[in-house]
Amino acid sequence: MIELRGLGKRFGERVLFEGLDLDLVPGRTTVIMGRSGSGKSTLLRMINQLERHDAGVVRLSPIEIPAGLPHAEWSRRATALRRRTGMVFQGYQLFGHLNVLDNVTLAPRIVQRVPRAAAEQQARSLLELVGMAQAVTRFPARLSGGEAQRVAIARALATQPEVLLLDEPTSALDPGSTADVVRVIGDLKARGFTLAMVTHDPVLGHQLADELIELD
Amino acid sequence: MSRVLVALMLAGAMLTGALSAQAPLPERYREAGVIRWGADAEGGAPFVYLDAGQPARGEVGFEVDLAKALGELLGVEFRRVQAPYENLVQVLDRGDCDVVLNGFEPTPARRDLVRFSRPYYIFQQQLSVGPQVRDVRSLADLVGRRVGVLGQSRSHELLRAQPGLEVVVYESNVTAYEDVVNGRNAASLADLPIARAMRPLFPQLVDVGEPFDAFYYCMAVRRGEPDLQRALDAALGELLANGSLERIYRAWDLWVPAEARLGDAEVASAFADDGVRAAGAIDWGMALPLLGLGALRTLGISVAAFVFAVVLGLVVALLRLHGPRPLRWCAVAYVELLRGTPILVQLLLLYYGLGQIEGMQLTAMQAGVLGLGLNYAAYEAEIYRGALSAIPRAQREAAMALGLTTAQSLRQVVVPQALRLSLAPSTNDFIALFKDSSIVMVITVVELTKQYQMLANVTGRFIVLGLVTSGFYLLMSLPLAYAARRFEQKLDRDGA
Ligand SMILES: Nc1ncnc2c1ncn2[C@@H]1O[C@H](COP(=O)(O)OP(=O)(O)OP(=O)(O)O)[C@@H](O)[C@H]1O
Ligand SMILES: [Mg+2]
Fold first, then answer.
1. What are the residues whose beta carbons fall under 8 Å from the beta carbon of B385, sequence distance 6 or more?
2. How does DSSP classify residue A98?
3. pLDDT(B278) > 60
4. How far is C-alpha B291 from the chain's CA centre?
5. Is it the case that residue B15 has pLDDT exceeding 50?
6. Ligand 1 atom at minimal distance to the Cα of residue A39
7. Which of A38, A158, A183, B323: disulfide with B319, CB 3.0–4.6 Å?
8. Which ligand 1 atom minimizes the distance to the CA of A200?
9. B397 touches chain A (CB under 8 A)
10. Average of pLDDT values for B406-423?
11. How many Cα atoms are found within 13 Å in the side-chain-facing hemisphere of B236?
C-alpha cells in the first residue's frame, strides 16, 4: 500500500499541497478530479517521485521517502519505488525508436534482467490483454491515439507494478478510442489491480471510483 | 656640382644605357615601375625573413639585398609578395608575382614549367644529425632511418636518389630541423646557406661530413617572358662584374670558393636555351597508385578521426546537459575552445608543440587523427546537444517511471532517439571532415590533396590531375551520403 503522509508541495510562492494524507489501498481504484491547475498531475507525479515533495513522507513499505533527502539517496529510493509502480501518461510517451513489442519489453529486460524470450512472451500476453496483440512490429508513430494508449498501459504493466498511475488516459482520445481504453481500465479494475487515475470526465470518474478525491 | 659627381652620373647613365640597349626591361615593368618577387618568408633565413631579434628591421636576407640591388640597377622597385614555397610556381603562373627569387632551384621538373635566369648563387648540401646520432658521416649511413627534408628541393631530390632512406617531407626547414632535435628523425639534409643560417636556432644539431654537391639558385619568370629573363640575366651579370654580388654574399657569410664559377660561361648560360617545352606528361601507371594510396590514407584518417569525434562529442554533450556542474563547465569550455581556435593551430600544437616535450611525441598520423578528432568532437557535441534537447523531457520521465535509472534512461531512450536526429547533420560533418582532412598535410602527412599537389607541381597538369583527384573524393563521399539517405528513409518509414 502506498501511503502519503503530511505531504507538502509548493512551486515558488504558490502552495499547492499542505498536510495531504492519502492511501492507495490494494485492489481499490482512486480517482483524482479537480479543475485544471489544481495539482492533479503533480499529485500523481509525487506518488512515483517524478516530482519531489517539500514536506511529509511517501511510503511503499519498506521504502520510505521523507522530504529533504540528499539527492543521491533520494534518487536511489525513488528508483526503487518506481520499480514497483507503473504510469500511463496523457500523451502516451511511447519510445519512438522502438516497436510496440520492444516498448513493452524494455523495462523488464533492462530493469529486471528478464531474458528476452521470456520478456517477449509476457509482453505478448499483455498486448493480448489490451487488444494490441496484432501490432507487435509496428512503430509508435504508426499507431492511433487509442492504440498507443493501450500499448502504453501494457508497457506500464510489464514490470508487474503494485500500483498503476494513470494521468488523464483518455483526454486526448476520440470517443471510439476512449471506449477501447476505458474497457481495458475497467478490465484491470475487475482483475483487482490497484489504480490511481486522474480524469476530467465525471462519468468515467464516478463509474470507476472506489475513492474519489476532489482537488481545488 | 662637382666634376667628379657629374662624371659619375654620366658613367651611371651610360652603364644603364648599355644595359638596357643590350636587354631592356620589358615596357610594362618600366611603366609600372614595380617588379613583384615571390618568396616565402616562413623559415626563410637567410633568404628573406623577419629577424626575431630585431623585428624593427623588417624583412632581411641576402635575397632582400639582392632584390634591392637589382631594383636600383633596373630603375624599378622590387616589391616582395608572400607565397608558400611549395606553390611559388603557381603563384608566378597566376600572375600574382612576376619573379620568383627564393633560393629557387632549376630542377628538371621546374624547367618544364618556368623560365630560369642565370644562376646568382652556387649552393652545396649540408647533412645535420641529432645530438644522439653518433654513427653517421654521410647519406649512405642513414639507410633505414628517417631523414627530413624540405619538399621539392634539391636536397629532396638527392635523398630520393639515395636508396633505403625513409624520407619525410616538410614544408619548412624549421620544422624539418625541429623533428631532428626532438628525435623523430635521425637527420635532415638542407642547402648549405639554410644550414648555416639555422644553426643558431638549433645548437643541438651537429653538421656531419663535408658540404657536397653543387647546384644553382636562379630567379624564375613565366615561360612566356623571355625578355624579362634576359633583362634579369644582364642585370645579374652586371652585379657580378661590379662586385656587388660578392659584397652581398660576404656580408651574409655566404661567399664560398664555389662562387668563383658564377662567371663561367657554361654556368651563366646553363638555362639560357630552355625553350618553351610542353607541360610534363603524366605517367598514369605511377600517378594513379599514388593518388589511390593518398585516397586510402585520407579515408583512414577521416574515419578514425570521426569515430573519435562521435564518441567524444557524445560524451561532451551528455556532460554538458546532465553532468555535475563542474564537468558541465568543462564541457562548455571544451566546445568554445576547440571551435574558437583554428584547427591549423591545434594541429601544429599537437605535432610540433607536443613534439618539444620528452615522451609526448606523436607520429604525424596520430597527431592528425587526434587533432581532427578533437576539433570535430566540439562540433559533434553541439549537434548532439541540440538533438538531446529536442527529445521531450517526458520521454525520459516515461523511462524513469518504468524504474530505469537516469543513466539507463539516457542510454536506452534519449540517446538512441537523439542519434537518429543527428544523423543528417552528422553525415554532413563527416563529409566536411573528410574534405578538411587535407589540412593534415601541414604536419607532413601525404594524403590525397597533398599527393595531388606534389604530382601537379611536378607535371604542371593541374586540371587533369585535379579532376582525377576530385573523382577520388567523390568516389568516397557519394556512397556515404547515399547510405545515410537510405538509412534516413528507413527511419522515416518506421516513423521513428
Ligand atoms: N515544474 C513546475 N514549476 C512551476 N509550476 C508548476 C510546475 N509544474 C506544475 N506547476 C504548476 O502547478 C499547478 C498544478 O499543475 P498540474 O499540472 O499538477 O495541474 P493539473 O491539475 O494536472 O492541471 P491540468 O488539468 O491542466 O492537467 C499549475 O498551476 C502549474 O502551473
Ligand atoms: Mg494534469
1. B317, B320, B321
2. S
3. no
4. 18
5. no
6. 18
7. B323
8. 25
9. yes
10. 93
11. 22
Low-confidence ranges of chain A (pLDDT < 70): none
DSSP letter for each residue of B303-322: HHHHHHHHHHHHHHHHHHHH
Residues B94, B207, single domain; the answer is no
A47/A53 Cα distance (integer angstroms): 9
Nearest atom in ligand 1 to the alpha carbon of residue A34 is 21
Q: Kindly state whether residue B303 falls inside one of the protein's structural domains.
A: yes
For residue B128, which of B142, B110, B111, B113 has the smallest C-alpha distance? B142
Work out the minimum CA distance from A87 to partner chain B, whole angstroms: 6
Q: Which pLDDT does position A216 carry in this prediction?
A: 81
Residue B234, all three cell numbers: 644582364
Position B1 scores a pLDDT of 43
Mean predicted confidence (pLDDT) in B118-126? 94
Q: Are residues B453 and B368 in the same domain?
A: yes
Question: Ligand 1 centre from A85 Cα, in Å?
Answer: 22
| Structural domain count of chain B | 3
Q: Dig out the grid coordinates for B124 from the structure.
A: 652545396
Mean per-residue pLDDT, B53-76: 91
Q: In whole angstroms, what separates CA B325 from the centre of its chain? A: 43
Cα–Cα distance, A139 to A201 (Å, whole number): 29
A179: domain CATH number is: 3.40.50.300
B268 domain-assigned: no
B462 band by pLDDT with thresholds 50, 70 and 90 = confident
Pocket test for ligand 1, best of A41, A167, A171 (most atoms within 8 A of CB): A41
Q: Report chain A residues whose CB lies below 8 A from the CB of B406.
A: 75
Measure CB to CB from residue A87 to each of B401, B417, B494 and give the nearest one: B401
Cα B420 to the center of its chain, rounded Å:
39
Sheet arrangement for strand B121-129 = B166-170, B146-150, B187-191, B121-129, B206-217
Q: B83 pLDDT band (50/70/90 cuts)?
A: confident
Domain that holds residue B34: 2-120+218-260
Q: Is there a contact between B245 and B122 (Cβ–Cβ < 8 Å)?
A: no
User: Which of residues B223 and B30 earns the better pLDDT score?
Assistant: B30
